[in-house]
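From the pipeline queue, job 12 of 40. The input is one protein chain; the requested action is below.

Action: predict structure.
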Amino acid sequence: MDLSPDSLSVAVSCRDFTLKMYDLKHAKCTGIFRSHTDSCQALKWSHDKKYLISASRDKTIKIWNTKTKKCISTLIGHQKPVISIDLSPCQKYIASGSGDGTVRIWEWKSSLCTQILLGHCN
């Protein structure tokens, strides 16, 4: 689960492998995101709220357009479930941690992994 930067929305992961976005002011679901094939472990909003990033037990990270509710990029490289993600303040990089013992640094625009750090211990 992650609160949006403006605290007006929340994104949550569901048992059916979907993600849901809620408007907190009106207490209603404003979007459903479908693409992961296993449960989502972490969510992160972009600073401008245009994108949502999800990390899943299916070993992928997905970047979603929050307006269209479509996955615009899938980051593949981890060998075990992805359990944590973060976004750099400049919004240029995504960091992901996995049960495979690595932290990967991804370039947002190209979706390429630029660094692999070994020895990550949850």
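Job complete. Residues 22 and 30 are 5 Å apart (CA to CA).
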